């Protein structure tokens, strides 16, 4: 199977403007098409409202992370927000910095950390400068590659999961969480009404978990095992729906019974279910859900340019409980600060694939890391 474009760019723009894509979907689509400027004009909340100021650091990040609610503490201290620049994919961000661009604070996700550190793009972070650091959950403090040789280079901020949405009224055997497993994607009983991820790294990771293989450091023999297992699964799919909207509509209509998605789909399905009364579950597979996380790093240029203190202030603002509550309530992403969940009704959190018992919830999480030979996986997909 060859990788195909996720959707036409005009359709992408319409869905984005209508709010029908999760931000993670938007990031994926923009990465596919190399769209960077759209982030400023479509997702940006405050970057267009202020001029660049040489007295403030440059925050190089995904579109949307310039919304003022993330920077309340920084703004209260300095009277304005930092300067912003945006990327549409981490590959784009890496290439730009590798080519000499020097921002002061960046926003990578877990799988990029080792690459960025090895390239000399990450400076030490002093956690005693971060007032909100004690409230960051330990599970996030311990994510791979966040500390190198005893030096912290990454502070996690948000997270989400890739799992399955299951129409439990149509597949009642999976209503009990104890029975929820990635193996459901190979259940021939539901042939033609399944949909695995259309991303190679996720599909291979799911197959690896089913086989009891650690996804992130597979050898060639293990990759072949996963490839063989995926070859058995592919004929069972209705299709590999590429957009958030398509997946949601297909599950709501019963055309899909089990579909891989991130937790942003849960709120969309809950809205559909209110009108039609169907039942679904956000699965907690016994092998562990794939859990992504993203966060903040300081570029060495922050030290050179005298922005080291303000770089820490940006990080501290992002990991504040206020910023976290905003992201949970408006973006439906999780947050690394445990206090961010206070005040949220459990039913509301469940409706968006979250929970107030977040520490227990993450106990079986499979945090995504860089996979061995990602190009090989993509070519075999």
Question: Can you put this structure into words, describing what you see?
Answer:
The structure is a single chain. The chain has helices at 9-17, 23-33, 37-43, 72-78, 90-98, 113-118, 138-141, 200-211, 220-233, 244-252, 264-276, 301-304, 308-318, 321-331, 346-351, 358-361, 374-380, and strands at residues 58-62, 83-87, 105-106, 147-148, 151-152, 155-166, 194-195, 258-262, 281-282, 290-298, 334-335, 366-367. The chain folds into two domains: 9-159 and 291-367, 3-Layer(aba) Sandwich (D-Maltodextrin-Binding Protein, domain 2), CATH 3.40.190.10; 162-290 and 369-380, 3-Layer(aba) Sandwich (D-Maltodextrin-Binding Protein, domain 2), CATH 3.40.190. Strands 1, 2, 3, 6, 7, 8, 9, 10, 11 and 12 form a ten-stranded mixed sheet that branches. By secondary structure, it is of the alpha/beta class. A hairpin with a 2-residue loop joins strand 4 and strand 5 (151-152).
């Amino acid at each position: 199977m060859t990788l195909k474009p996720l959707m036409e760019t005009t359709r992408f723009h319409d869905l984005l403007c209508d709010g029908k894509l999760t931000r993670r979907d938007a990031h994926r689509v923009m990465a596919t098409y190399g769209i960077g400027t759209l982030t400023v004009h479509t997702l940006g909340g405050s970057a267009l409202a202020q001029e660049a100021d040489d007295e403030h650091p440059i925050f190089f990040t995904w579109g949307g992370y310039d919304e003022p609610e993330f920077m309340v503490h920084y703004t209260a201290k300095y009277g304005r927000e930092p300067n912003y620049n945006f990327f549409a994919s981490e590959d784009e961000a890496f290439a730009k910095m590798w080519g000499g661009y020097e921002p002061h604070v960046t926003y990578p996700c877990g799988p990029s950390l080792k690459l960025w550190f090895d390239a000399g793009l990450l400076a030490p972070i002093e956690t005693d400068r971060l007032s909100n650091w004690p409230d960051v959950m330990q599970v996030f403090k311990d994510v791979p590659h966040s500390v190198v040789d005893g030096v912290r280079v990454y502070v996690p901020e948000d997270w989400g999961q890739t799992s399955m949405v299951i129409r439990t009224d149509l597949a009642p055997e999976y209503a009990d969480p104890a029975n929820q497993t990635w193996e459901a994607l190979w259940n021939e009983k539901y042939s033609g009404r399944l949909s695995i991820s259309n991303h190679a790294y996720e599909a291979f990771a799911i197959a690896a978990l089913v086989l009891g293989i650690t996804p992130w450091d597979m050898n060639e023999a293990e990759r072949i095992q996963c490839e063989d297992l995926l070859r058995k699964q592919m004929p069972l799919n209705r299709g590999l729906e590429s957009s958030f909207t398509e997946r949601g509509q297909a599950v709501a209509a019963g055309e899909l019974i089990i579909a891989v998605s991130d937790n942003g789909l849960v709120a969309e399905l809950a809205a559909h279910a209110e009108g039609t009364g169907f039942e679904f579950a956000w699965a907690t597979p016994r092998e562990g859900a794939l859990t992504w996380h993203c966060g903040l790093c300081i570029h060495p240029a922050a030290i050179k340019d005298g922005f080291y203190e303000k770089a820490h202030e940006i990080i501290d603002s992002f990991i504040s409980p206020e910023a976290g509550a905003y992201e949970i309530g408006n973006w439906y992403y999780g947050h690394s600060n445990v206090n961010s969940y206070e005040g949220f009704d459990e039913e509301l959190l469940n409706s968006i694939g979250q929970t107030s018992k977040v520490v227990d919830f993450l106990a079986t999480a499979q945090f995504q890391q860089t996979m061995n030979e990602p190009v090989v996986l993509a070519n075999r997909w």
